[in-house]
Automatic annotation (TrEMBL):
Entry protein name: Signal recognition particle receptor FtsY
Binding site for GTP: 122-129, 204-208, 268-271
Record function comment: Involved in targeting and insertion of nascent membrane proteins into the cytoplasmic membrane. Acts as a receptor for the complex formed by the signal recognition particle (SRP) and the ribosome-nascent chain (RNC).
GO molecular function, one term: signal recognition particle binding
Keywords: Cell membrane, Cytoplasm, GTP-binding, Hydrolase, Membrane, Nucleotide-binding, Receptor
Cell compartments where the protein resides: Cell membrane; Cytoplasm
Subunit structure comment from the entry: Part of the signal recognition particle protein translocation system, which is composed of SRP and FtsY.
Xref: SMART domains: AAA, SRP54, SRP54_N
Length: 318
């Protein structure tokens, strides 16, 4: 498993810095749990379980990790407590291996007939519109023609924010303003994308999860109208989650999966929290690829998720 060389030095430093609070919090708790211990026994495993749960890894995923370590302790008969970091790192990497693709796709897109359409969903406040803007900037930087659709028409701020990102990045934004039909915006964005030979179309949507029936109907309608131009659209439904909310992000994800088919995740705001362990739990419990993580304010701080680099930064000794 190659942990290094997959990112530029700058991106790795940004990732390390973005996960610094999680890293420090985790090792502080782990250090306190290990004080005075010389071997991995039942008491140590109980302490480790508490550390993982309190680091927002989640109960179910924590149980999997503890079970795996228990088996290794039983097999090897004796494990020194100083080896626990290494074993824990290996088990977390193994969990991520099960759900994350071996190679990060980056800003390359699968070959499709016409533009690649990404429908972006998520509740208000998670950084959805900002994530779309940063993605647009990075797709454009990689040489792609991008179009944005401002279909979160229930919030003036969302429409205005997306327009601002369009101006900042030089990417066209299809908008009908506030309180207009979101499906109509999506239809026009896809139509324009096809006519102008766009490579990728990103559609922002409303995040009113408290009204699930309406949201389900709205997303279904958006999909139907887009398919008049591109039968396979959307090629991707990306759910944006706020990592700083910890296990609430997991609850939100499960709620969204009840109203629409989600096949990609972006987890934002990891730099402002010590709850980065939630990435492990979400990846394990939902079995949906985490494609992007937000580790800072800059455009380049929305990074392609690389499981090897993530684990390395999580366990980095400062």
């Amino acid at each position: 498993m190659a942990l290094f060389g997959l990112f530029s030095k700058e991106k790795k430093e940004s990732l390390d810095k973005g996960l610094e609070k999680t890293n420090t919090n985790f090792f502080n708790k782990l250090g306190k749990a290990m004080v005075g211990r010389s071997k991995v026994d039942e008491e140590v495993l109980d302490e480790l379980e508490n550390v993982l749960v309190s680091s927002d890894v989640g109960v179910d995923t924590t149980v999997k990790i503890i079970d795996a370590i228990e088996k290794r302790v039983a097999r090897d008969l004796y494990l020194n407590a100083t080896e626990l970091d290494k074993i824990l790192k290996e088990e977390i990497a193994r969990l991520l291996n099960a759900t994350q693709p071996d190679t990060a796709q980056g800003y390359d897109l699968p070959k499709v007939n016409g533009p690649y359409v990404i429908l972006v969903v998520g509740v208000n406040g998670v950084g959805k519109t900002t994530t779309i803007g940063k993605l647009a900037a990075q797709f454009k930087k990689s040489g792609k023609k991008v179009i944005l659709g401002a279909a979160d028409t229930f919030r003036a701020a969302a429409v205005d924010q997306l327009k601002l990102w369009g101006e900042r990045t030089g990417v066209p934004v299809v908008s009908h303003g506030m309180n207009t039909d979101p499906a109509s915006v999506a239809f026009d964005a896809v139509k324009q994308g096809v006519e102008q030979g766009a490579d990728v179309i990103l559609i922002d949507t409303a995040g009113r999860l408290h009204n699930k029936v309406n949201l389900m109907n709205e997303l279904a309608k958006i999909k139907r109208v887009m398919q008049k131009y591109i039968p396979e659209a959307p090629h991707e439904v990306m759910l944006v989650l706020d990592g700083s909310t910890g296990q609430n992000a997991m609850i939100q994800a499960k709620e969204f999966m009840r109203v629409t088919e989600v096949n990609a995740l972006a987890i934002t705001k990891l730099d402002g929290t010590a709850k980065g362990g939630v990435v492990i739990g979400i990846s394990d419990q939902l079995s949906i690829p985490v494609k992007y993580i937000g580790v800072g304010e800059k455009v380049d701080d929305l990074q392609v998720f690389n499981k090897y680099e993530f684990v390395d930064s999580l366990f980095k000794k400062n």
